[in-house]
Design brief:
mainly alpha, Four Helix Bundle (Hemerythrin (Met), subunit A), 0% strand
Length: 114
């Protein structure tokens, strides 16, 4: 359930998320994208593992792991495409939002600031 909600939040901010790189004409930086760079993939990965846990299935867990790795690889590919298309604008976004899936570094920055 949490995974699908995170995925939904990503689409509220970035409705073009499933389109080709040619159709994307902006860098999503607001909302959940201000915390992590790939909330849609995080939501799906959590949903994959949620299904595996719900079924209590080793094969489903293995499939969830494989799908998580494939989404991680896809995220890296997309970041390279975004860097080529948006250049410095995307590079600054990556610097501001350093985490792909889990906002560990952002949370550490916040804690250090307080």
């Amino acid at each position: 359930m949490l995974g699908m909600y995170i995925h939904y939040l990503s689409h509220r901010v970035h409705p073009k998320a499933h389109r080709s790189i040619n159709a994307i004409d902006y860098v999503a930086t607001e909302g959940i994208y201000s915390w992590i760079r790939h909330p849609g993939y995080l939501g799906l990965i959590l949903a994959f593992f949620g299904v595996a846990v719900a079924f209590g299935s080793i094969p489903a867990t293995i499939i969830a792991f494989i799908l998580a790795v494939l989404h991680y690889i896809q995220a890296i590919r997309e970041e390279n495409l975004m860097l080529k298309k948006f250049g410095d604008k995307y590079a600054k976004y990556v610097e501001k939002v350093p985490d792909r899936f889990i906002p560990i570094r952002k949370l550490i920055r916040i804690l250090k600031a307080h």
